[in-house]
Design brief:
This protein is elongated. Helix content is 35%, strand content 22%. With 240 residues, the chain is of the alpha+beta class. A hairpin with a 4-residue loop joins strand 1 and strand 2 (19-26).
Length: 240
């Protein structure tokens, strides 16, 4: 069955001598694996170069029920990523976010809404120049609401702990080992207001930023099934 959809490229891995496998999050079907031809023939309707992490693409695809890997018929880039492809910080962010999304985007019924959020986030990353050190923090905070794992951040009080298991602040130390201490919880309460327009206003030391990212990844790891370590995180840390 031939269909049209939009997608965000998450990853490309070699499959055999003729094809790579492209992981794409689409607006129609969610996360899908497509066969991406390796051939560089001028007659090809698919330019492999546009399958860069976080590229937003228009696709004509061939889908069949029960298949795990589907075929691409045509692919066009919606808009170029000039800044993301050349700015070292943005390149590192793109690789981190694409790996993060590859792990966290599993089965979902909100494909169109999530795709729209991803596209808006990619446009913001392309355009923004200030506050890039906090971009991935803002992204992870905002994404949680679309995955149905938004923590309750409304009942904060001075000296409260944050219970990572239940996603809420508590007056006393939780019984489990998955919690944030009061100082860390205060950071969380402050960052609940972060977005792409104000992210440059949040000033953090390298240690504090790394700690917040670690805690956020811990939260995702608790609430998303089979969520592994993110390898590209270390590269991103070196930039800050």
């Amino acid at each position: 069955m031939h269909l049209k959809t939009q997608g965000v490229v998450l990853a490309v891995n070699k499959y055999n001598d003729r094809f790579s496998m492209a992981q794409v999050f689409t607006s129609e079907f969610g996360r899908i694996t497509y066969l991406l031809p390796i051939s560089k023939s001028k007659k090809s309707k698919i330019n492999r170069a546009i399958f860069f992490p976080l590229s937003v693409v228009d696709l004509e695809v061939e889908h069949f029920p029960l298949r795990h890997i589907h075929r691409l018929k045509e692919a066009q880039r919606q808009f170029p990523l000039y800044s993301i492809n050349v700015n070292p910080v943005k390149v590192s962010l793109a690789f981190f976010l694409s790996e993060f999304l590859s792990k966290v985007l599993q089965e979902t019924t909100e494909n169109t809404i999530i795709f729209s959020f991803l596209k808006e986030s990619i446009i913001a990353l392309e355009e923004k120049e200030k506050g890039l050190a906090n971009f991935h923090i803002a992204f992870m905070f905002l994404l949680a609401q679309f995955l149905g794992i938004t923590p309750n951040l409304e009942n904060y009080g001075k000296g409260f702990y944050f219970d990572l298991m239940n996603g809420e602040f508590k007056m006393s130390r939780p019984l489990s080992t998955h919690f944030l201490k009061p100082q860390q919880s205060e950071f969380l309460n402050t960052f609940k207001r972060i977005n792409y327009n104000n992210m440059h206003c949040f000033k953090l030391s390298q240690n504090d930023r790394n700690a917040i990212i670690n805690h956020m990844l811990d939260y995702y790891r608790i609430h998303v099934y089979d969520f592994p370590e993110i390898k590209s995180l270390e590269i991103l840390r070196e930039l800050y």
